[in-house]
Amino acid sequence: MQFWEQHKLAYPIFFLTYVSSSTIDYVKSFLEWMSDSIAKSFEHTRDNAFLLRHVKLLINKSDLESVPDGPKVVLASMGSLEAGFSHDIFVEWVSDTKNLILFSERGQFGTLARMLQADPPPKAVKVTMSKRVPLVGEELAAYEEEQNRIKKEEALKASLIKEEESKASLRTELPVNDQMVLDANNTHSSSNAIGQRSEAFRDVLIDGFLPPSTSVAPMFPFYDCSSEWDDFGEVINPDDYVTKDVNIDQMLMPVDGELAGKLDEGSVSLILDTTPSKVVSTELTVQVKCSLIYMDFEGRSDGRSIKSILAHVAPLKLVLVHGSAEATEHLKQHCLQHVCPHVYAPQIEETIDVTSDLCAYKVQLSEKLMSNVLFKKLGEYEIAWIDAEVGKTENGMLSLLPLSSPAPPHKTVLVGDIKMADFKQFLASKGVQVEFAGGALRCGEYVTLRKVGDASQKGGSAAIQQIILEGPLTEEYYKIREYLYSQFYAP
């Protein structure tokens, strides 16, 4: 857009996709993920980088066809040229030598875009044109007959299920000694059976009404629709609280005269279109005479960036996938020399084993040993130095046991890490005047604290850093050194 403004170009730009407006509205809310210049521009001038003044959003190809003839730029989906608006425009425009196709990403294998990138035009290519047409005549009648048959089967199935559920509920709810329950063992459904009923039963069954053979209760029964309860209260059916009908009109919001929100007009028309239809496909041969350019805008890291990232990550083992043979071999040789000694570049469907033998053993800490261990809290954890010897338990498992002889002396090990900013706040809370100067921490008038060494090493080894305390041997020096030692645990 800056290029259009700087050169004062009047050629229109169209963004043609079913979700054009909703896509732009969505990315407008992600300014905090953009570069610092874009964020600062919005803070000072309220200028949103995605307020595309020179781009017109389209969601229908008919809107593009109504544009007057002349030079124009159309950003259309899909990038593979296999379907979508780009497929239709490709068929119409490729025969003109004045047109240009600009690919912003490498096409996937087997797609029309990848074929054109591998073998540029001029050439003839075959494309499949698909169109959805409504059903008519015998096809429409056969479709409606099939739909009616499916509906009848579903209705019959639902009625059978409802009848079975009703029978099951009656069997469980009605007591056995209820006078209104019919005798299931009596198979004679004649008028004599009615004469043997009580007077209360005659009030329900009148002459001429006989209970069906499948009934388990008299006609016109009364059901007590009591609710089921458990330990947590009344049992509810979650389906009763699901909103099934969604008003699509409320999901669309007019913004600047165009449709936005969750759905675009093209998407809504596809959802609401219930007309019976079919897809008719035809194969065409088109002459590709236009120009073709591929510019890498995939947003992937280039070779130099990948090498720099791998050097900082310093992996123990590296597996390279998804790349050309030449690029993969080049990166493999670079990593072998500068990153790590174990680099793999497997072929498709090749299996490799990258497991590591760390010589880890599972041991048990004996109660005698743990009773003499002194733990010290370090942040969220508790740590301790242990001198022990390896033995075996009765079941053969390795166990750490107390030493049978006095423990040998060991060098002091400082456990933990210190951040200069946190230590600065700690000293300030103790009343020490402290400030950063030249990459070091100046404490008081004469004492200086600095970190030296690399925080990361190649090959995944532990970082080696030194903390240097400089200054005259005064009371202030020893005081700050004591504060520094308090930040570590020295077992």
Which word captures the global form? extended
* Topology, number of strands: 22
Estimate percent helicity. 25-40%
Alpha-beta classification: alpha/beta
Residue stretches low in confidence (pLDDT < 50, at least 5 long) are: 176-207, 251-264, 455-462
| N→C terminal distance | 63 Å
Q: Briefly, what is this?
A:
Helix content is 32%, strand content 20%. With 491 residues, the protein is an alpha/beta fold.
Layout of helices and strands, plus pairs?
Elements: H1 2-7, E1 13-16, H2 20-27, H3 36-45, E2 55-58, H4 61-65, E3 73-76, H5 85-93, E4 100-103, H6 112-118, E5 123-134, H7 137-173, H8 191-195, H9 199-204, E6 229-230, E7 233-234, H10 248-251, E8 252-255, E9 258-261, H11 265-272, E10 277-288, E11 291-294, H12 303-313, E12 318-319, H13 325-338, E13 343-344, E14 364-365, H14 367-370, E15 376-378, E16 381-383, E17 388-392, E18 398-402, H15 420-429, E19 434-437, E20 440-443, E21 447-452, E22 466-470, H16 475-485
Helix pairs in contact: 12-13
Main location: nucleus
GO molecular function: RNA binding
Protein name: Cleavage and polyadenylation specificity factor subunit 2
Describe the overall structure.
The protein has about 500 residues and is α/β, with parallel strands linked by helices. The protein has 5 domains: about 1-130 and about 280-295, Rossmann fold; about 140-240, no CATH class; about 305-345, no CATH class; about 365-400, no CATH class; about 420-485, Ribosomal Protein S8, Chain: A, domain 1 (2-Layer Sandwich), CATH 3.30.1370. It is about 30% helix and about 20% strand. It has 16 helices and 22 strands. It has helices at about 1-5, 20-25, 35-45, 60-65, 85-95, 110-120, 135-175, 190-195, 200-205, 250, 265-270, 305-315, 325-340, 365-370, 420-430, 475-485; strands at about 15, 55-60, 75, 100-105, 125-135, 230, 235, 250-255, 260, 275-290, 290-295, 320, 345, 365, 375-380, 380-385, 390, 400, 435, 440-445, 445-450, 465-470. The strands form 9 sheets. The chain has a 4-stranded antiparallel β-sheet with strand order 19-20-21-22, covered by helices on one side. It has a 3-stranded parallel β-sheet with strand order 2-1-3. The chain has a 3-stranded mixed β-sheet with strand order 14-18-17. Helix 12 (about 305-315) packs parallel to helix 13. The protein is extended and about 100 Å long. The model is unreliable at about 175-205, about 250-265 and about 455-460 (pLDDT under 50).
